[in-house]
Amino acid sequence: MPDDLTPAADPTTTAGDAAPDAAPDAATTAPAGAPADAPGQAPVAERRPTVRSHHGDDVVDDYEWLRDKESPEVLAHLAAENAWTQAQLAHLAPLRQDVFGEIKARTQEADLSVPVRMGAFWYYTRTEEGRQYAIHARVPAAGEWAPPSIEPGTVPAGEQVLLDQNAAAAGHDFFSLGSFDVSEDGARLVYAVDTTGDERFVLRVRDLATGEDLPDVVEDTFPGAVLTPDGRYVFYPTVDDAWRPYRVWRHEVGTPAADDVLVLEEPDERFWVGVGLTRSRRYLVVELGSKTTSEAHVLEADDPTGELRVVWARRDGVEYTVEHAVLPGGDGDGEGGRDALLVLHNDGAENFELVTTDVPARGAATPLDPAAARVVVPHDPAVRLDGVDAFAGHVVLSLRREALPRVAVVDLADTLADTARTTADQPWAAHEIDVDEPLFSVALDTNPTWEQPLLRVQHTSFVTPATVVDVDLATGERHVRKQQPVLGGYDPADYVQRREWATAEDGTHVPISLVWRRDAVTLDGSGTRAEPAPLLLYGYGAYESSIDPYFSVPRLSLLDRGVVFAVAHVRGGGELGRHWYDDGKLAHKTHTFTDFVACGRHLVETGWTAPERMVADGASAGGLTVGAALNLAPGLFAGVLAGVPFVDALTSMLDPSLPLTVVEWDEWGDPLHDAEVYARMKAYSPYENVPDDASAYPRVLATTSLHDTRVLYVEPAKWVARLRAAGAPALLKIEMSAGHGGVSGRYARWEEIAFEHAWTLDVLGAARG
Question: Domain check: are 419 and 445 in the same one?
């Protein structure tokens, strides 16, 4: 099932693009027992009724047998689904080739990230034309802070390749890099890879002086391993049978994995664990978190075999994160400064506030008292504080205001001009980094060095390619280091972005972001659409994840064919702060679905599109959103594209043995033990609510992966079987060698996008190039 550690699928660069149009996919049903791959006949999943009984309610499920992943019969059925989908969409092969070619032609295949300074090296990744994966490399650094100029497609003098993912992926159908961390002295690399898609990563340590892997191998780790600054120890998490990271281990490089030391184990099945270093690299932090509660433990990085200390004891409903800072004045390390922890928390502060507190003393047996902390950035109901990063002389806040992500900088020298002010009850002054666009996203980029004169940020929008900027912290001067290249003469002035607001059933105003090609969508003098346009409406709505403005090269293939791309910022996401999330989860979950429908209806009523010209698109938890909206308003859409969709939510949440179920109860509710939750989820779960006659439903394309551990393949497989049995024109595409994120490798990903774009354009009747 879905989890918030996986971002919502990008509908125009990864999974899911859709579109409405002409004839529906002909889903001719073969009689029971007929060969599934018979020409002109869709696969028929045999009805094998099983009864599920909870809270006095008996539910007959005809397709639960599809859950047996090892069954030759199930695998044969999935293969037949793939064959049927390919046959039904064979006429789109030329369009798929066109879209793939457009993505490829607009992408600078031999490219290079902006080098990042850490210690004695500049680190970067580069890609080579014709190769699927990135190459991680570095070059020596001199005293300068401006990154070296390296021409894309060239190998700079002095380059050292740290990890060539293409070589590591050789012989595998799937490849994913999990952990990747270099020790502060640059001597060692820890990395972990998954070659099946099930997110079980094999961890290795590489000696960067020789380029050879050491004998150290640790199986079945979870992403997030880190090296201590001296490179002697690796801290890494592992998962339990329910795929929950619940243990943190310490591995001494050069010793057998069997000798690794268990540092922390979390028995509460609602909590995940993770490990990392503060930006100062002075403290190891082990964080434990459920969907509603967190707890942080710290340990000096120069004492990795010491005892962890709890910062604040966990309290139900209180979330917090910690960061180490050195504040001017007082005793302590860091040029006369005093060590402190910055704690971002929501105790009595819905949108979070920032406080400072002491670092728990070595050997401290009891946690710190939250009442002793001092507020430095108070709670603001209009500003959601998302994160805090500390540098030697600055603190950087990641925040959200007016439904847009922003970055603000606190100059500690100015804010804390003297020792007295370090204890004064005076808020810190934070200055936002401005972007001159109506819609945008600004985020902190990679900044691994504690003492650095430049702050690296990245900004983008629906029309502006991702742009990396270094801000001089002393002067405020900005240096644009790179803007994502878009080949073929891309001009952002050819495209328009805009925000509108729909009115939900309960009167709540829901933001919608739109982007379109200026000369492909006709507006009259008053700004009203002259005629309905083909439109792709994307939605997510869970885990407080926000779908912020972002640029997409593949999206241009839709926009240039006249498609309007719209994002429904529904409740359950975090666009408008914590209350926006809370008002779309648990007992309020249906707001997510009704908001999405309200956004679709707004776009029709205001003339942007028409039902026969609109496709709904969502992935993972967003697949639940569009699946529920399909049942609520089937006539509103011409098509529904559902990527790895969480459409059998009730069945999954009733089974605590499934991966992540117990962890997810704080997000969706516990239907196993609570009859009210059971009734509520049964009323909206897409699979449960397919009507007996769905012949009037629009075209549906569901995609999934056999090895997905977050939303099991069986959910869309059952959903499609039930939709088709009810007469809906539904197709299923399943990747047999991938996980929740779909196929790996950029060319394989482009092919996947081209497949979904072509389906979308075909449904929308916008297939012209």
Answer: no
CA distance 206 to 300: 24
Full residue range of the structural domain in which residue 384 is found:
320-431
- DSSP state at residue 719: H
Q: Measured between alpha carbons, how far is residue 458 from residues 235, 443, 464, 473 in Å?
A: 29, 5, 11, 15
In the residue annotation, 620 being an active-site residue is answered as: yes
Let me know whether 639 and 542 are in one domain. yes
**Catalytic residue (one of 441, 620, 652, 705):** 620
Q: Is the pLDDT of residue 384 over 80?
A: yes
Q: Is the pLDDT of residue 420 over 50?
A: no
Within a domain: 530: yes
CA-based radius of gyration for the chain: 26
pLDDT at 415: 72
Q: Assess whether 708 carries a catalytic annotation.
A: yes
Q: Write down the pLDDT at residue 336.
A: 60
Which one of the listed residues 77, 740, 744, 757 is annotated catalytic? 740
Q: Which of 324, 708, 744, 757 is catalytic?
A: 708
Q: Tell the residue number behind the tokens 């860091």, with chain if given.
A: 334
Q: Are 457 and 408 in contact (CB under 8 A)?
A: no
Does 740 participate in catalysis according to the annotation? Answer: yes
CB-neighbour burial class of residue 435 (10 A; exposed 0-12, middle 13-18, buried 19+):
buried
- The residue assigned the tokens 């908001």 is 595
Q: Tell whether 625 is covered by a domain.
A: yes
Average pLDDT of the segment spanning 606-633: 97
Evaluate the CA torsion angle 375, 376, 382, 384 in order and state its sign.
Answer: negative
pLDDT digits (tens, 9 = 90+) for 661-704: 999 999 999 999 999 999 999 999 999 999 999 999 999 999 99
Q: Are residues 420 and 347 in the same domain?
A: yes
Note whether 78 and 706 are within 8 A (CB).
yes
pLDDT of 198: 83
Other CB atoms within 10 A of residue 680 CB: 20
